[in-house]
């Protein structure tokens, strides 16, 4: 006959002081004693901080006493995560260890960081643990450009910003939609006509060039028909900026071709650049943009223009009704 026995009593591992001098301490018991003092200081009931969360923190601290970091928003940041973290951090501090930080992953990250920093300062003073004042605060949770600018402002109290999803996915344009459109049929230029101006295509095979000033600044990009001679540095060029009703004249100091044939009839025309080369090119291109084009709020649009011949072709096909 099988005899059922109760499970063995769970005994928390003992932790030696950081300096390895003195007896090992029951960290769990030490944390419970600190929790009472922390809750009294914060005006909380000792039963409010979640026991399961505290047990996880203690287990983490036992495994990594020199690298203890708490995620505070599993339950409630202010009423559970923060007091539980403080109890464990102070117990570790009593043994000569210092917590390496906390992480916030929900809610108003900026406001929470500021409130938690204030608590750190008062608790550090109350219990004479000055290192607690400067415990790093890390934040995460779908941080985009706008939130990044907000969290990086002076006085935010945020020390580490973790960016995951938006490293590889831009929330404003999470995918790049590409559609093939006919621009010529049997050698004859064609264009799509629609009431949605943004969906109208530009007819004919085209070439693209970047015009630069004498100081290397970007003036504009120009689209023209492939058979047109390319723009020449130092020569005036009459172009039609997109969205403008009149042409303008520009005299570029330098001209860079933008189109490069990479694939023809399904075959690579040459070796593709390495990842490092592509990264360097992207950084160089971004670095050349005027800060007005890169600002987060109301960025200035980058100018793109059509050549005289291409604009004339667009006008002719638009009025003729061919598409």
Mean pLDDT: 90
Beta-strand level of the residues, as a percent range?
Answer: 15-25%
Order of helices and strands: EEHHEHEHEHEHEEEEEEEEEHHEH
Strand order of the largest sheet: 12-11-16-10-9-13
Structural write-up:
The chain has 323 residues and is of the alpha/beta class. Helix content is 33%, strand content 17%. Strand 7 (184-185) and strand 8 (188-189) form a beta hairpin. The longest helix has 18 residues, at 77-94. The radius of gyration is 32 Å and the shape is elongated.
Kindly list the characteristics that best describe this protein.
alpha/beta; 4-stranded parallel beta sheet; elongated; 323 residues
SSE blueprint:
Layout: E1 14-15, E2 25-26, H1 27-42, H2 51-63, E3 69-71, H3 77-94, E4 101-104, H4 109-126, E5 137-139, H5 145-151, E6 160-161, H6 165-168, E7 184-185, E8 188-189, E9 206-212, E10 218-225, E11 237-241, E12 248-250, E13 254-257, E14 263-264, E15 267-268, H7 275-288, H8 291-294, E16 304-307, H9 308-320
Parallel strand pairs: 3-4, 4-5, 5-6, 10-16
Antiparallel strand pairs: 1-2, 7-8, 9-10, 9-13, 11-12, 11-16, 14-15
Helix pairs in contact: 1-3, 2-3
């Amino acid at each position: 006959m099988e005899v059922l026995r109760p499970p063995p009593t769970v005994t928390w591992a003992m932790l030696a002081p950081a300096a390895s001098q003195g007896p090992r301490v029951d960290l769990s018991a030490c944390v419970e004693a600190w929790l009472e003092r922390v809750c009294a200081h914060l005006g909380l009931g000792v039963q409010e901080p979640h026991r399961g969360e505290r047990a996880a923190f203690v287990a983490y601290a036992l495994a990594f006493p020199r690298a203890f970091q708490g995620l505070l928003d599993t339950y409630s940041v202010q009423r559970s995560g923060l007091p539980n973290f403080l109890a464990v951090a102070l117990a570790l501090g009593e043994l000569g260890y210092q917590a390496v930080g906390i992480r916030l992953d929900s809610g108003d990250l900026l406001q929470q960081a500021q409130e938690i920093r204030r608590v750190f300062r008062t608790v550090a003073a109350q219990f004479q643990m000055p290192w607690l004042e400067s415990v790093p605060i890390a934040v995460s949770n779908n941080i985009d450009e706008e939130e990044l600018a907000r969290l990086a402002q002076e006085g935010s109290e945020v020390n580490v910003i973790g960016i995951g999803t938006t490293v590889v996915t831009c929330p404003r344009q999470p995918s790049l939609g590409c559609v093939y459109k006919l621009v010529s049929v049997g050698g004859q230029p064609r264009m799509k006509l629609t009431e949605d101006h943004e969906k109208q295509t530009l007819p004919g095979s085209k070439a693209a060039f970047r015009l630069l000033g004498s100081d290397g600044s970007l003036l504009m990009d120009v689209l023209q028909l492939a058979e047109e001679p390319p723009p020449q540095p130092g020569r005036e060029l009459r172009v039609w900026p997109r969205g403008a009703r009149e042409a303008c004249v520009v005299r570029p100091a330098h001209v860079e071709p933008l189109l490069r044939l990479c694939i023809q009839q399904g075959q690579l025309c040459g070796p593709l650049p390495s990842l490092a080369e592509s990264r360097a090119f992207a950084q160089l291109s971004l670095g050349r943009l005027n800060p007005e084009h890169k600002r987060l709020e109301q960025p200035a649009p980058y100018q793109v223009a059509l050549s005289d011949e291409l604009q004339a072709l667009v006008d002719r096909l638009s009025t003729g009704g061919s598409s």
